[in-house]
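Here we describe the complex-level prediction in full. Unlike the single-chain runs in Section 2.1, the three entities below were treated as one system.
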Amino acid sequence: MSTRTVEMALATPGLDDRGRPSRLPLGVGTAVDDDLGAEHMLVNIGPQHPATHGVLRLVLELEGETVKRCIPHIGYLHSGFEKLGEYRHYNQIVPLTDRTDYLSPMANNVCLALAAEKLMGIEITERCQVLRVIACEMSRVISHLVWLGTTGIDLGAFTPFLWSFYQRERIYNLQEAWTGARLTTSLTRIGGMMADVPDGWEAGLRDFTATFTKTLDEVDTMFTRNSIWCGRTQGVGVLTADEAINYSLSGPMLRASGVDYDVRKDRPYLGYETYDFDVPVGEHGDIYDRYRVRLEEMYQSNRILEQALDRLARLKGAPLNTDDHRVILPPKGRAMSDMEAMIHHFKQVMEGVPAPAGEAYLGVENPKGELGYYFVADGTAKPVRWRIRPPSFINLACLPKLCEGALLSDVIAINASVDIVMGEIDR
Amino acid sequence: MGLTLPSDGEIAEVPAVSPNWLTTRLDFLVNWGRANSLWPMPFGTACCAIEFMATAAGRFDISRFGMERMSFSPRQADVLICAGRLPFKLAPIIRRVWDQMPQPKWAISMGACASTGGIFDTYAMVQGIDTIIPVDVYVPGCPPRPEGLMYGIMLLQKKIKGETMADPSLRQELLVNDQGFFVPPAKIDEISEPFGNSVHQTRSA
Amino acid sequence: MTAVAPGLSPSVEALRAAFGSAVLRSAVSCGDSIVWVDRDRAHEVLAWLKNTPGQEFNYLTDITAVDYRDPGQPLEVSYQLRSLGRKVDLRVKVPLDKAKPLTVDSVFDLWRGADWLEREVFDMFGVTFAGHPDLRRILMWDTYAEGHPLRKDFPLRGNFTRAEQTRQALAANPEAHYSMEELSIADAFNELPDDMKRRLLEGQRGELR
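The structure predicted for the assembly as a whole is:
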């Protein structure tokens, strides 16, 4: 018979020397009475359930109220992205990436462009790098904001949802001004960007970075020392560092368990090594630490955004797209007046850009974890294989481990803490 | 006065009521009530669900239409909003949810994927949820903006306000065969051709 | 290949020294080091890479497979490994002859993260991972009869017509999606509704292929 130890904070938790709420085990660890275990119950949650963040389906084997086994079922949103990608040119895959992890579309676009550029051996300009960093960090903020809002709802707090969606709308306005779409941005092209930022856009983002942290402070005030929040999250869904590595977790899930691994620091891309930012690392590996890590990541993203804006101001007027004519379309004015340019334009759009035979894997630090795109090319304009390394798919795979021995109500909290997005899990 | 609301299965027994002063006034009252307190069942699957959440949040505020009461149980819902793409694996689920909803009920197909399959003309994807459940309003867009969804909701309200209990066929669900099809199989093949559903779609409200 | 390609990971030479002919070939593509190993010793090689001091590829980034457009070319299962401490990557590929059964040893015992990744490769490519404790389809449903979608001989729109796909989808009973493992939870079996018990006893669950 397994014993279950629940670490809980007192109703008014004290602070430890680092100013964090201390965790005082109340000694709730009690052996579940054997008599209660006589009946096992099968409970099905989903696929249409508001708390499963999409169309995830969980089958739980319960003993009393304790979860003995959790079996997730996925695939209810399987759309055939990877198959579809084999029928598309590299640039035509960009709109598909919007729709995999639809909470951070711009970061996916950036990852795709980087992977294809690695495959084709293309260097991008510095201004393009800075804009892509801005795109990635904006995505991180909106993705974590959705996580914050929906997790708050799952644990019974509705107000943070309204706060975070208000801030999301501000970023959506910026995204819309830049790309023309709120959600399906299709921002990048191989070798550059779909569009430069419009005039005056930087001022809008500066306004956002200057005021946005106020919302985070409010959330911090409301949650971080809240006894209900602490009670629901501390010591629940614990994963040690070794387990997290063994389960191939990535992103905040891995860092909350105390593994200091961030692709931006360890395998830098887009010049992230030149930005000044910290990677928050948890130590308990529970839901509370995941919350702290994600909250802090939003502050850090804000720092990166501010630095990137400074660089963008310095690079005003610098070229945006690479001058490699293999991949970049001729300017519209020339394509309409010059025969050669028009033929080039036509061929590039109709036949696509051939990639040399070879393969490339590139991982970036997406809000959910390490997103990797793996291309295998055979010299034609369409990839032989486009593989998405989906961070939430791999993070979700440890759900049975996290839920084992938890209470039924904790399953919702644990599931929320993994920060899944079904479009990416099922692809 | 045969004012019993025609319900599923009893359609044949309801005597045809010709529109008269009483039924039209009653229609107005009933439809006014129904149209302004729709309880949506959000069947959110993918990207559109995020825009649906944005519609429910502060800036767009779906409660202005009397719809803020999300009904996550189909048995208390009036309108099913399918927000997002629908793979074949999920098709029996949405059908069951639809069957569990009591009459009167309506369906909004939100977004290109739900309406036509969108860019996903693949092995896994239903090419338009109207091959699975009957749809009242199609909202185009990938994803539709919240304003677009609201326009769809207002169209649905307009449709509801035009309904009359004198027409028993409004609540009829006619299956074309015993396998649960609303649309004949040949028609499904036809509208599922590449670009099929988007050019053949003439049933929008 | 005799000359060492520039940029090749030193782990490949170490592998050659330790495993000899089991290392089929190696290459550098776009800066990534790739090593092809024989199927029969793939598990051994991966275990060695994970556990040997100096290699310590302790993080399994990804498992996937590639089916090439040329039907004669073998299907390849690809393991993307990373050493978190040393901050280096290595891709290990295992070619599988399509004329023979597509089988490779599971690395579930080395990395738990391989669980779903191997199931996905099984679902999408039909590669069997010997020793995987719960190898069943993960994205498509258990009774999916059209084949393995990411194979090159599988058409984009599937093997069946849309009407047939719709018919199968509507005929599916969502409850029948419980796996045998779930239904066989011993204590819960008696609590099941009669029709589910009957279906279970009849073995109405679709064959795993």
